[in-house]
Structures are given as C-alpha cells and as structure tokens.
Design goal:
Length: 458
C-alpha cells in the first residue's frame, strides 16, 4: 500500500506539471470526448445485461452465447488486463470478445464503425469516378406469429434470387450475340429449305416462324451497369412481429439516366425478390416492400442550397461526402438506430429486459438463438476490388483488434483485481474515462478503492 501511495503522490505532482500522468488532452473536443464516454458507459452496461441474460437463458453455462464472456473473461495466457491510451482514447487489452453484431452492443459498434468506413470509401471512390449510387430497400409482409427464423430465411432466399441466375448475371457481348444470331438464321434457312424439298425438316429455331430473332442476353448487371453491391440486414420488432429487411447499396456505372436506371433496376430486383420469398411462404408488395433512393438527387438539392451562399465548389464536394456517409450509415448502423412506428431494435428490447416482461424475455431469447451465425453486411465479389480495398476481415477479427500497442499500456490490472472490477460495468467504463481525462485521477481512484495495479511509466 505504501508503494502505491508514493507512486500516487508522484502521479499527482506530474499531473500538475502536465506530464504523462497529467491531463491527457487530445485533439478532439471536450464535447466529443464526453459523448464518447457517455456512450461507452451505456454500451458497457448493456453488454453486462446481455451477459446475464445469456447465462440465464441456458441450463448449462457452457452453452451460453459468446456475449457472456465478451469483455469479461481474459484471453488465454494473459497475466492481467492492460489499460491503453492511444491518441487520447482508452481501451482494455487482454480480454475475450464475441464479435457479434447482433447480441453485443460493444462489438456491434466497433464492427459497424469499420464497415461504415469501408463502405464510405467505396462510395467515395464511386462518386469520384463519376458513377451513380443507389440504395434499394426490400422487405416482406409478416405477421406477429411468424418466427424470426422463418422471416429471416425468406429474406435470405429473396436476396439469393435477386443476385443469382441469368436474369442478373448474363452479360452477352455484341459479338457473341451476332454469332448466336447467325446460328439462328442458318438453322431457320435449313428448316425452310428442307420443307421446300419435301424432306422432313429439322425443328425451326425458337421465334423463327414469327421472325423474332433472339435478343441479346443481358442480365440486370449488364443492362443497368451494376458495378457491384453491398447488402446490409436490419431487424426490428413491432406490433406485427419481426421486421427483417435489407438495404442494398448499388454502384451503377456512369450518371446517364441515373434515376431511370435505378428505379427500373429496383422493380426488376423486386420481381425476383418476390419469387425468392414465395418459396418460403412470404409475399411483398411493390408499394410497401420496395424503396429506391438515388443519392444524386439528394446531392443536387444540397448543392443548390449551399450554392446560394456563393460556395458552389464546396457545395458539390460536401454533398458528395454527405451522400456517401448517409448511405453508409443507413446500410450498416441499423442496430444502433431507434426504430420507428412503435417498433424496437433488438438492443432497445435488451435495454428494457430489466422490467421483467415475460414476452420480451422470450423475444430476446429467440433473437439470441436465431441471429447467431448470420451476416449483417455482404459484398459482391467485384466491388471491393474495384475500389481498391483489401480483403474483407471477418467480424470476429475486427472485434478482437486491440487499441494501440504494448507501448500504449499505462497500467495492468492483475487477474484478481480484474475479477473484482468486472462485476460492475460502470467501474470499467469509469476506468477508461479517467484514463482519457487524467491518469493521476485514475491512480487516486484505484488507491481509494484498494485496487492493485501495476503502472507502466518511466
């Protein structure tokens, strides 16, 4: 205890001098830091509740969802939990993570931030290259009694029908079509000649008698100039049960007839969507089950508005960035939005579980079970490559990434100290908040609460 007290005095002195253990101000504003710390406290509390619910919902703790260990259990082989501060932001090192975008508010936020950043880069590239951005949103009609698994499976089936088969993938060139047309004509002529000679003619090619030559085979990708897509899944729960829908961000080549192409493409996609969901017993109307947004329109309106201030160049630049970021957030951050029209996101449901509503407990348990293993964001194979992005990292790897490096470690909490602290998520958030604000305050708080910590500073 004496050694810790002497260190604390030294830390206070150095803090007053603005040394390493003093006020670790960073380039971000006080407001942004306060917001980040408030959000961290909320997410940690929600994850603590998710852990308890996951353990409560199974008979054997070994069968619990991985969120039960996320940010709670230490990683294999570590002797303590590190506290790191990098660029004014603090984080723990040496902990297990679950990598669930569906069940863990902490991992979900981390993964969504990375995916949104990647998607934003793709959309920025698309606009710089002069391409069109569009977002097609599709859903299914559902009832309160429909199980989450069934609704979600229908959505997966619908999307599979949209992006598979010749109606989507065919891309016959003009030369290939000309060669096929030549075969069609020669087969038809052979048929006519055989008839004139009184011979048993070969079967006429399709469309020959009506003189309808075969049209060029071009699926939606070629017809509408689809360079690639990214598809995100969003789920809410309302009075009519589980509402599962997809946001598909599409990059269309060029800007010519952008709106016409986007809307025609959306209608074509919705037709195949209906065929796919029908296989699972679901339907979707074009009026309520399809929405098409084209970013170019939003950009133009914003540009015209800002141009009135005499900054047309800045207006165009800002509008492009805004459109890309808006589409990226809409497509990837659905878990963190507030549902509309009386619906709730799964995390909103989790937040209210402490009230003890039996139906909500059953709903969350269903969510925990049937969301497991499903992907939130998927890409077409070509889009990331076109935009120059590296290979996609799995969600689990993104969630497991630790902030900074060993050189950024300011203290290590021994296992026993960590086991005491982890019982209260507010304490964990406070440690990181103090580490960002003033390490001297953090050291004094640890001493006052009789918590052993090994400090790493020279």
């Amino acid at each position: 205890m004496e050694s810790r007290t002497s260190v604390a005095c030294d830390a206070t002195d150095r803090g007053a001098e603005g040394g390493r253990l003093g006020n670790n101000a960073n380039s971000s504003s006080h407001i942004s830091r306060s917001n980040r710390q408030e959000q961290r406290t909320g997410k940690y509390k929600l994850r603590e509740w998710a852990r308890k619910v996951a353990l409560h919902s199974v008979d054997n703790k070994l069968d619990a969802h991985r969120v039960a260990l996320c940010g709670f259990a230490t990683a294999t082989g570590v002797s303590g939990v590190g506290v790191r501060v990098s660029d004014g932001v603090a984080g723990f090192a040496g902990l297990q993570t679950c990598g669930s975008v569906w069940a863990c508010p902490v991992c979900a936020a981390k993964i969504a931030a990375r995916r949104s950043e990647e998607l934003g880069e793709v959309l920025g590239w698309a606009r710089r290259e002069g391409h069109t951005l569009a977002m097609v949103t599709m859903t299914v009609s559902h009832k309160r009694k429909d199980a989450l698994r069934d609704v979600w499976d229908s959505v997966s089936s619908g999307w599979g029908s949209v992006t598979s088969g010749g109606v989507w993938n065919n891309a016959e060139t003009d030369q290939e079509h000309a060669a096929r047309l030549a075969v069609w004509e020669s087969s038809g002529i052979a048929h006519e000649e055989a008839k004139q000679l009184g011979q048993n003619p070969p079967r006429a090619p399709r469309g020959w008698h009506k003189r309808q030559p075969p049209e060029i085979k071009r699926g939606d990708k070629a017809k509408y100039g689809v360079l690639g897509w990214a598809r995100a899944v969003e789920v809410t729960r309302g009075v009519n049960g589980w509402h599962v829908h997809i946001h598909a961000v599409l990059v269309l080549e060029g800007r010519q007839q952008a709106h016409e192409r986007a809307y025609a493409l959306g209608r074509s996609m919705h037709g195949r969507w209906n065929k796919g969901i029908a296989k699972r017993g679901f339907t979707s109307s074009q009026e309520h089950g399809l929405r098409v947004d084209v970013s170019e329109g939003a950009e133009r309106q914003l540009a015209e508005y800002l141009a009135k201030a005499g900054e047309p160049e800045k207006a165009v630049r800002n509008s492009v960035e805004k459109a890309g970021k808006t589409l990226a957030r809409e497509a990837t951050l659905g878990q963190h939005k507030t549902a509309k029209r009386g619906g709730r996101t799964p995390f909103q449901i989790l937040t209210g579980l402490h009230l003890g509503d039996a139906e909500d407990w059953a709903v969350w348990t269903e969510w925990l079970r049937d969301s497991k293993g499903r992907r939130q964001l998927t890409w077409s194979a070509e889009l990331r490559e076109l935009a120059g992005l590296l290979a996609e990292e799995p969600d689990e790897e993104i969630a497991a990434e630790e902030m900074g490096s060993d050189d950024d470690t300011v203290l290590v909490l021994p296992i026993q100290s960590w086991r005491e602290l982890r019982k209260d998520s507010d304490q964990l958030a406070l440690i990181l908040n103090l580490a960002e604000r003033n390490l001297g305050e953090l050291m004094l708080w640890l001493i006052e609460n009789d918590i052993t910590a090994d400090w790493k500073f020279s």
